[in-house]
Amino acid sequence: MATGAAITSVVIVGAGQAGLEAAAALRSQGHEGSLTLIGEEARAPYQRPPLSKDYLSGKTDGESLPLRADIFYNNNRIDLITAEKVTAIHRAIHQVECASGRRFSYGKLILATGARNRALSIRGAPHVRYLRSWEETDAIRARVEHVSSAAVIGGGFIGLEVAAALRAREKQVTLIEAGERLMARAVSPTLSDFFLQLHQNHGVDIRFQASVTAVQPNDVLLSDGTKIPADLTVAGIGVIPNQELAAAAGLTVGNGIVVDELLRTSDSNIYAIGDCAEHPNRFAAGINSGRVRLESVQNAVDQAKCVARGILGNPSPYEEVPWFWTDQFGVRFQMAGLSTGYDQAVVRGKIESAKFSVFYFNQSILLAVDSVDKFADHIAARKLLANRSKITPEQAADETMDLKKLA
Amino acid sequence: MPKVTYLAHNGKSTTVEVPNKHSVMEGAVKNGIDGIVAECGGACMCATCHVYVDPAWLDKLEPVEEEQEEMLGVTAAERKPNSRLSCQIIVRPEYDGLVVLMPDRQT
Question: Is pTM beyond 0.90 here?
Answer without folding.
Answer: yes
